[in-house]
């Protein structure tokens, strides 16, 4: 469901509450907030989306889709009788590599008010 929200051609989702209230949204963070979730794994994933939105204000849908694919791949390997411990160790190794890569490519810049203003202006112009 979330994959169809992603991008400029993403589709709106209609959420209907028990009281019949209707909400249309394209925001991936609205869904975890408004849906009644009882499955433990799904609940943890929705908390990731909430924290992502609280910290960065964006990227919730992408985060959920990445988690979904990681779980899909883990399930595939488990069905091929690979021990979950090995999969977990692989995830940990991948996390370390990703963090190292992030440290290597990050760009440190001093941000003054003018730079932030120009960046915001460029974003707003490209979003139209």
Automatic annotation (TrEMBL):
Gene3D superfamilies (alphabetical): GroEL-like equatorial domain
Coiled coil: none
UniProt keyword Cytoplasm, yes or no: yes
GO molecular function, one term: ATP-dependent protein folding chaperone
Keyword field contains ATP-binding: yes
Domain of life of the source: Eukaryota
Keywords attached to this entry: ATP-binding, Chaperone, Cytoplasm, Nucleotide-binding
CC per GO annotation: cytoplasm
InterPro entries to which the protein is assigned, alphabetical: Chaperone_TCP-1 (IPR017998), Cpn60/GroEL/TCP-1 (IPR002423), GROEL-like_equatorial_sf (IPR027413)
Any Pfam family hit: Cpn60_TCP1
Main location: cytoplasm
Localization (cell): Cytoplasm
Sequence similarity: Belongs to the TCP-1 chaperonin family.
Protein name from the UniProt record: T-complex protein 1 subunit zeta
Biological classification of the source: Eukaryota, Metazoa, Chordata, Craniata, Vertebrata
């Amino acid at each position: 469901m979330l994959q169809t929200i992603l991008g400029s051609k993403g589709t709106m989702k209609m959420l209907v509450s028990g009281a019949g209230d209707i909400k249309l949204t394209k925001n991936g963070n609205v869904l975890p907030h408004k849906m009644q979730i009882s499955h433990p794994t799904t609940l943890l994933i929705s908390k990731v989306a909430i924290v992502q939105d609280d910290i960065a204000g964006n990227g919730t849908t992408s985060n959920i889709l990445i988690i979904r694919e990681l779980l899909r791949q883990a399930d595939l390997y488990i069905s091929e009788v690979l021990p979950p411990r090995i999969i977990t160790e692989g995830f940990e190794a991948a996390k370390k590599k990703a963090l190292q890569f992030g440290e290597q490519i990050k760009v440190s810049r001093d941000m003054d008010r003018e730079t932030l203003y120009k960046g915001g202006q460029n974003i707003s112009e490209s979003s139209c």
